[in-house]
Structures are given as structure tokens and as C-alpha cells.
Amino acid sequence: MAETRRLAPGRLVLASHNAGKLRELSALLAPHGIEVVSAAELDLPEPEETGTTFEENSAIKALAAAEATGLPALADDSGVMIAALGGAPGVYTADWAITPAGRDYAAAMARVAEEAEGSDDRRAAFVSVLALAWPDGHVQHYHGRSDGNWVYPPRGTGGFGYDPIFVPEGDTRTYGEMTPEEKARTNHRARAFARFAQEALKE
Ligand SMILES: O=P(O)(O)OP(=O)(O)OP(=O)(O)OC[C@H]1O[C@@H](n2cnc3c(O)ncnc32)[C@H](O)[C@@H]1O
Ligand SMILES: [Mg+2]
Q: Which keywords appear in this protein's UniProt record, sorted alphabetically (predicted)?
């Protein structure tokens, strides 16, 4: 069986350049008294996400940061899967927002609605895979998922990315219409984090 490691007290690098993810992960880590520093603050380069799975891409990001800093690093690779689109955009969720002028999430959400037009299957799911990596190359993964439905037009200005078109199961509001605390109750990243905390954080 693969080795399972716990994090020793000390600094942890958050290997993400996404401000929304950094806010959520910092809030989740805060009660655990872990000193976090982000890849963005350290000016670390963004590695190319050449993998074809969330597992591969989260490991690429976490390992790049751990090797560059000599510290353990936590990365998230995530995306939204639209049932009517056979699970797209999935691993390519961020790519759907790329335009010559930078990321455009309004355009990405409009593309979901356009491509799924004509289907009455509104099921969608957000997935997050966290990778915790050490400088010696060891990696541990944690998975989280939030099932729900997509809506269009977008609603709400909270959260980030595709939040304004995603309504989690058991609610009628989009993540964009929720407070950060409300989104944290059901979202994919918080669920993956709970598994990470249970296994890898020393209390
Ligand atoms: O790779 P890093 O630097 O962490 O940041 P990123 O934004 O590029 O992140 P990913 O490569 O993992 O791509 C994930 C995409 O899925 C979107 N996404 C992930 N979690 C989300 C959430 O909780 N709410 C809304 N959109 C989300 C996000 O906006 C990206 O477009
Ligand atoms: Mg990315």
C-alpha cells in the first residue's frame, strides 16, 4: 500500500494562481493553524497543465511548487462536468474561459448554454482533486464532488468562475448567490479538503 504521510507543523505552499481558490483554501486551512504562502505570492511560474486527468494536473502543480520551494505544497485541479455534453468541459474547464484578452467566464458560461441547447438534461457536477506533494516527489490525492444542475442566464456575483450557473443539489440558489460560508457547506473543494484534513493534518 502507498505510504500515507501527515503534514508536520510548518509552512505549506498553496500551488494555485486562482484568487477564488486561494480564498477558499486559506479559509479552510485557517482553523488548523497552518502558515500558508501562495505560489502567486512567491512568484512561482505556472506549470503547464499537460495532464488529461484532474489527478495528473493537480500533481503537476503541487510537485512543481514543492520542488521549487523545498516545502510541502497543496494544489487543486477542478472543473465542471455537464451531463448533456458528455462530461465536458471537465479537465478543460479553465481552457473554455481563455480568450486573447485573458479569461472570460461570462463567455465560458454562455458556451455551456449554447452547446447544451436542445437538451433537457440539466445535470452538472463540480469536481475537485487536491494533491499534496513533498519536495522528494511523494504525492497524496483527495477527491471531492458537488452534484447539481446548471442554469442560464448566470445568477449572482459571489464566488468565482462558473459559480453563477451552478445550483447544488438541495438548494435553489446558485453558488454565485451564496455567501462563502454557504458555498463551503456543499462544494467540491471543501469536500476534498475535509478528506485531506482528516488524513494529512496533525491536530
Ligand atoms: O490551476 P490553478 O492555478 O489552480 O487555477 P485555475 O483557475 O487554472 O484552475 P484549474 O486549472 O483547476 O481549472 C479549474 C477551472 O474550473 C473552474 N472552477 C473550479 N472550481 C470552481 C468553483 O468552486 N466555482 C466555480 N468555478 C470553478 C475555475 O474557474 C477554472 O476555470
Ligand atoms: Mg489551471
A: Hydrolase, Magnesium, Metal-binding, Nucleotide metabolism, Nucleotide-binding
Ligand 1 contact, 78 CB (< 6 A): yes
78 C-alpha to ligand 1 centroid (Å):
5
Residue 92 lies in a domain: yes
CATH of the domain at 75: 3.90.950.10
Ligand 1 within 6 A of 49 CB?
yes
- ipTM computed for the complex: 0.99
Which residues make beta-bridge pairs with 166? 150
Q: Which residues have CB under 8 Å from 100's CB, separation 6+?
A: none
Question: To test the ligand 1 pocket, which listed residue (92, 162, 182) has its Cβ within 8 A of the most ligand atoms?
Answer: 162
Q: What is the pLDDT of residues 96-139, one digit of tens each?
A: 999 999 999 999 999 999 999 999 999 999 999 999 999 999 99
**52 within domain boundaries:** yes
6 inside domain: no
CA pair distance 178, 172, nearest whole angstrom: 10
Q: Name the residues annotated as catalytic.
A: 77
Extract the residue ranges of the chain whose pLDDT is less than 50. Answer: none
Q: Is the CB of 187 under 6 A from ligand 1?
A: yes
User: What is the rounded CA–CA span in Å between residue 6 and residue 34?
Assistant: 13
Ligand number with the minimum distance to the CA of 76: 1
pLDDT of 8 reads 86
pLDDT score recorded for residue 151:
98
Q: How many domains does the chain have?
A: 1
Yes or no: say if 159 and 143 are a contact pair by the CB < 8 Å rule. no
Structural domain for 58, as ranges: 11-200
